[in-house]
Amino acid sequence: MKRIVALLALVPALLALTTSPARAAAPPAGACSNADPAHNVIVQQPWAQQLLDPKRVWPHSTGAGVLVAVVDSGVDSDHPQLSAPGKVLPGRDFFYAGDLPGNYDCVSHGTAVASIIAADPVAGVGFAGIAPGARILPVRVTDRSLNDSGEPQPIDPEAVGKGIRYAADQGAKVINLSLSGYSDLPPVRDAVGYAESKDALIVAAVGNREQNAAGTASFPAGYDGVLGVGSIDIAGARDDSSQIGPYVDLMAPGKSVVAATRVAGHDYWEGTSFAAPFVAGTAALVRAAWPGLTAPQVAARLIATASMARGGAGSQEYGAGVVDPYRAVTEGLTGAPAVLPAVAPQVVDLAAEREHSWWARAGAKAELLAGVLLLVLVLALVFALVARRGRGRRWRAGRSAPRLVTATREEPPEQMFLFPPPAVERPPS
Fold first, then answer.
1. CB 250 within 8 A of CB 223
2. 46-330 carries CATH number 3.40.50.150
3. Residue 335: which H helix or E strand, with range?
4. Which of 61, 104, 253, 301 has the most beta carbons within 10 angstroms of its beta carbon?
């Protein structure tokens, strides 16, 4: 009965996430040939949110006032956790020619990234973004259409470069790039330099090609000043596909993480594309809490406060460790250490010290003697009692009544699942 009441209590939240009012961000006619449908709501708290625990830091910072650009496949601003007024700006579409906004999405990739950064909390739903107070600037540079081999079509570097420059000109203080490539492309490199000159912190995925090409290059994560983010799983281990190299600065959850889908609902996502926004969201928290810090200082703070990972500090697998939103915001890393007052040496009274030592030794001897006398007295009393009972029984052996022992059955402990398995692994309800 209690379970039924609890489920009924979740009905308003589920309705809010599965029904959508007027589709203000519906894709333009013909823009999406095979749009990703809405998904079911995942109400359990995801493992990534349990690990990073962003609610701890929200009393100190929610990222309010910070604009985060998501250079991706667009962002569906109609999703219930992204639909608050002013949460997702119109943005711009650099994939299609013309003057289209970027606040629509055909394939959910950019919507998922944006939700990890800034999705609003909803009662009865465990998923929420790292920095729900931040605003999202959607910059659409791809529709992630697949070729005949099932691989994403290459993204036009000119579109990416234009998108990065646009984000910087719009005042984005954090730019999330959940994309990577092998080549150092001038349009992207120059745009990254331009954004950094505008004090924008760029966070980029390091890529998911480690199984196929160990030690390969990764751009834009490999550019100076860009924070490269790799992926860990629920056990804290590097995801097998997460690339290894000197461009790995931080790690974040990226294996079977929950994020929003276009229109409504959630899904499980994998890859460094979804690890990067955990760092971008944390950067927004820091920029809101410490507005005087420059982008390089914010990056240094994120690295300095990272939690230790399996590879140790500075490894090419794990970088500085796992991003820690609470420490990144709350830990005091600025200011000079306080000057300690001078210590005045005290003159030691040798005669008083000798007298104190004599009394201490005498007291210890007295305590020892008293303990020995007490032990002798107790033994004598026990001996007297035993002798008295022995004489009464004429020194015959006695038997005590047997004690009844009730056999107890040990039950195996109930198995506890700390984290929900992916949807494909959960049994049907």
1. no
2. no
3. none
4. 104
Least Cα distance to 207 among 152, 259, 160, 264 occurs for: 152
Measured distance CA(53)–CA(44) in Å, rounded: 14
> Which residue out of 20, 36, 72, 242 is catalytically annotated?
72
- The active-site residue out of 73, 77, 242, 273 is 273
Q: What angle do CA 61, 67, 73 make, to 5 degrees?
A: 120
The two tokens of residue 43 are 């109400």
pLDDT given at position 413: 31
- Tens of pLDDT, residues 45-83: 999 999 999 999 999 999 999 999 999 999 999 999 999
Catalytic residue among 73, 76, 93, 109: 109
Place of tokens 């970027």: 102
User: Which residues make Cβ contacts (< 8 Å) with residue 294, sequence separation at least 6?
Assistant: 199
3-state secondary structure of 343: coil
Q: What are phi and psi of 11, to 5 degrees?
A: -55, -45
Nearest C-alpha neighbor of 174 from the set 133, 206, 128 = 133
User: Dihedral sign, CA of 120, 298, 94, 165?
Assistant: positive
On whether the CB atoms of residues 41 and 265 are closer than 8 A, the answer is: yes
The amino acid that residue 97 corresponds to is: A
Residue 72 to residue 93: CA distance in whole angstroms: 10
Half-sphere exposure of residue 146: CA atoms within 13 angstroms, side-chain side: 7
Q: Is the four-CA dihedral 109, 418, 317, 128 of positive or negative sign?
A: positive
What type of residue sits at position 348?
V
Q: Which residues is 67 bridged to in the sheet?
A: 135
Predicted pLDDT of residue 6: 41
How many Cα atoms within 13 Å fall on the side-chain side of residue 25? 30
Q: How many CB atoms lie within 10 A of CB 79?
A: 29
Give CA–CA dist 210/204, Å, rounded.
Answer: 16
- pLDDT digit string (tens) for 243-292? 999 999 999 999 999 999 999 999 999 999 999 999 999 999 999 999 99
Concatenated DSSP letters of 23-84: -TTPPPTTS-SSPPPP-----SPPHHHHHH-GGGTTTT---TT-EEEEEES---TTSTTT-S
Q: How far apart are CA 396 and CA 165, in angstroms?
A: 102
